[in-house]
Amino acid sequence: DIQMTQSPSSLSASVGDRVTITCRASQSISSYVNWYQQKPGKAPNLLIYAASSLQSGVPSRFSGSGSGTDFTLTISNLQPEDFATYYCQQSHTAHTFGQGTKLHIK
Amino acid sequence: EVQLVESGGGSVQPGGSLRLSCAASGFTFSSYAMTWVRQAPGKGLEWVSVITGSGGSTDYVDSVKGRFTISRDNSKNTLYLQMNSLRAEDTAIYYCAKSLLSARYGFDYWGQGTLVTVSS
How far apart are CA B54 and CA B88, in angstroms? Predict the structure, then answer.
């Protein structure tokens, strides 16, 4: 099974900051990584698919990169609505989510 | 407008069974893979199962293999998850979700979730 190790598990930042969340796969998964945002009491929302493609309707301050085993989600110019939990997901072999990163307001 | 509405959750004793349903509308249901993802209280997301648009191929997380069965009725635009031999660790909100292009490209629409509680 492919494991996804996401870091950090928690992150504090201020409005206007740039933050980066990383995911490392236990084996090469090409570019089959997707990123989601989840707010309390809500279903996840797809942000990035295939490592770097921005999902329709998602603000351009969200970006993704990486291939192979190492992937990043970057949020530039943090907005108040961005404080949430973020998950990576591999879809190369079955599916696995990372443990999540909770983004707090500093 | 794409809509996914789950139902069938509830409380059940360990060893019991439940069948979840996900009613889909607003898209050509048979053209998309569908998945179930669960989230235990206060925990992260866990992928459970996926099924192709035709229903011809399925996959499961190891912890539910042999106990859960995913299926779909494309004539009714409905996805199912039959859950047998339920355990306390199956307690979670269960979400159904639609694939973006294929299941390789993530899941772009999600239901509101249905809560399954397994407890004696």
Answer: 32
CA angle B52, A48, A34 (to 5 degrees): 50
Q: Are strands A10-13 and A101-105 parallel, antiparallel or unpaired?
A: parallel
Sheet holding A19-25, edge to edge: A4-7, A19-25, A70-75, A62-67
Would you call B69 exposed, middle or buried from its count of C-beta atoms within 10 A (0-12, 13-18, 19+)?
middle
Place of tokens 């989601």: A36
Kindly report, residue by residue over A55-102, the tens digit of the pLDDT: 999 999 999 999 999 999 999 999 999 999 999 999 999 999 999 999
DSSP, res B65: T
CA distances from B2 to A71, B67, B97, B111 (A): 30, 30, 11, 10
- Compare all CA atoms of chain B with the CA of A102 and give the residue at the minimum distance: B44
What does the pLDDT look like over B13-51, one tens digit per residue? 999 999 999 999 999 999 999 999 999 999 999 999 999
| Minimal Cβ distance to B106: which of A91, A92, A94 | A91
State the smallest CA–CA distance between residue A43 and chain B in angstroms: 6
